[in-house]
Amino acid sequence: MSTVLDPSTPLDPGPAVGPSSSERARRTRVRRALVVLVLVLLVGCAAHLLWDLRGSWAYALDLRSRQLGALVVVGAAVGASSLAFQTVAGSRILTPGVMGFDTLYVLIQTVTVFAFGAGALQLFGVVESFVLDTALLTVFGVLLFRWLFRRHSRNLFVLVLVGIVLGSLFASLSTLASRMLSPDDYLTLQAVLFASFTTVDVRLLLVCAATSAAGLAALVPLLRRLDVVDLGRDAAVALGVDYRRTVTRVLVVVTLLVATSTALVGPMLFLGLLVANLTRQFLPTHTHVVLVPAAAVTGAATTVLGQVVVTHVLDLATPLSVVVNLVGGVYFLVLLLRSVRL
Amino acid sequence: MIHVDHVSHAYTPSGPPVLDDVALDITRGAVTALVGPNGAGKSTLLAAVSRLLGPDHGRVVVDGVDVARAPDREVARVLAVLRQDTRLSARLTVVDLVRFGRFPHSGGRLTTADHEVVAASLAHVGMADLRDRYLDELSGGQRQRAFIAMVLAQETPYVLLDEPLNNLDMEHAASVMRVLRTAADDLGRTVVVVLHDVNMAAAWADDVVGMRDGRVVARGRPAEVLRTDVLREVFGIEIPVVTVDGSPVALHWLPRAGRHPMGVGQRY
């Protein structure tokens, strides 16, 4: 017990001013973990490109590198943005996916097909329709999240409930709309709604990569403020952070990032949750300058390795999104049951 | 000086006011205790002063800075506040937490001078040797002192605390009050603290403000407020007051305390 107080020397700096030895040890662990993450990602990339390479190398490498690009972009964008979202939401179990974002995507797609017919999806070029999708998703996503956080700011249980209810509401609205589609339109819709990395348009990939890079860059100046936001609204305001503006800016960027990925490959409900929590478990630090880039690397490593497993172990029998949702869903349950720092 | 300029606030538009036209000046350099029954508006007043809550009417000016209008970072260099609910989602060590106190000055990039202030605050609250412990490994009293070290590291002339003694045992409660007392005496901070126990207020504060139903109903030095007639105004019950070693002690825990002066009913 150290209740020893010496009021006669109020501003005498103690012996330890800089980082102590245990703090330095912790930093070394963080650095080591980062190196391991990057190595895992590189090994995954190499495995994806080179494992079981047969036939025309040029053809296979071209196909695989496009796929790899999509995997890395989606993993990095979803990972980094989900971690930032968790911080803003003040909870480790809330990610855009859990809050009904993916079902919102499904709803928007279904309503588009329902209202304008499947022809609408082919009316525009690939890039144009992708930009349109992303824009719609970002606008509706920001509206949804702003509304949620203003109404029930940081009341976790209400937020989780509202997220689940909204998710099922969007899902049943989509089902309703899809029941009324013609069989042809329905088939076209199905192809859009399943996360798929097998066919990726190069131009689309470039647009997506550029948008994601811009989004990730926009997060950088917000990272130090995110550390403070993690303390909660009152503490953040008390420490001079413009809380509402910071939260709004983070939400806009995060929504843009998730929307881009979802529009590129389709919904991956539990990817963000899985990656963000793995990152926090793996790295013993609270600084977002480290956490957010690490989540990007973890995300990319997860999607790439997941795809390697799907391709070579499961022989493409199941799509990556199913595997990620299975693992992520189980992990979500474990988190809920352990209720660590809800 | 903290100048509370006729502040009123209600949590629901039609509901009763939590703050009812409060006008209050708090001068520099003293420890001021806010006391009163539950729901008197003490915490709401503290939240309004620290701009965590925007009141419906009135304004708060601290050293010429209108806290609701001024930029957040500027206000954060004038006043620091510690709220009751200090649950954290991040797992932090003591020194991690205290470093946050430097955020209004450094924006998250700490200089050597910042590290020195952090070390000094830790020493001031007697936590220097626990700096690398995680907060969830600490006792309630240690945890509270770590949070106070963060608020002190903010180096603001004004420090506001909302019931910092909640859930603390006698020894830890006294040690927290001692930290606040020395912050005022040795570091020249102006401390405003919401307290539940009038005797704590009497023993440690220079100035006691009694609130009831959203209004300030009593104000003065401890000896002026700890009187049976004044406490009746604030708490609505009869509390015998005795003098021990020259200090007033309110015997609010006695069975005969609380009887209404007319002899009918308990409390109110």
From TrEMBL, chain A:
A UniProt-annotated Pfam family: FecCD
Localization terms from the record: Cell membrane
Keyword Cell division among UniProt keywords: no
Gene3D superfamilies named in the record: ABC transporter involved in vitamin B12 uptake, BtuC
Primary localisation category: membrane
GO BP: siderophore-iron import into cell
Domain of life: Bacteria
Region described as Disordered: 1-24
Membrane protein topology class: Multi-pass membrane protein
InterPro entries: ABC_BtuC-like (IPR037294), ABC_transptr_permease_BtuC (IPR000522)
UniProt entry tagged with the keyword Phosphoprotein: no
Transmembrane spans: 33-51, 71-91, 103-124, 130-149, 156-182, 202-223, 250-276, 316-337
One GO term describing the cellular component: plasma membrane
Keywords: Cell membrane, Membrane, Transmembrane, Transmembrane helix, Transport
Gene Ontology terms for molecular function: transmembrane transporter activity
Family that this chain belongs to: Belongs to the binding-protein-dependent transport system permease family. FecCD subfamily.
Name of protein: Iron chelate uptake ABC transporter family permease subunit
From TrEMBL, chain B:
Main subcellular localisation: membrane
Membrane topology: Peripheral membrane protein
Domain ABC transporter: 2-238
Localization (cell): Cell membrane
Keywords: ATP-binding, Cell membrane, Ion transport, Iron, Iron transport, Membrane, Nucleotide-binding, Transport
Record keyword Membrane present: yes
UniProt-listed GO biological process terms: iron ion transport
Keyword Cell membrane on entry: yes
One Pfam entry name: ABC_tran
PROSITE patterns recorded: ABC_TRANSPORTER_1, ABC_TRANSPORTER_2
CDD domains cross-referenced by the UniProt entry: ABC_Iron-Siderophores_B12_Hemin
Protein name per UniProt: ATP-binding cassette domain-containing protein
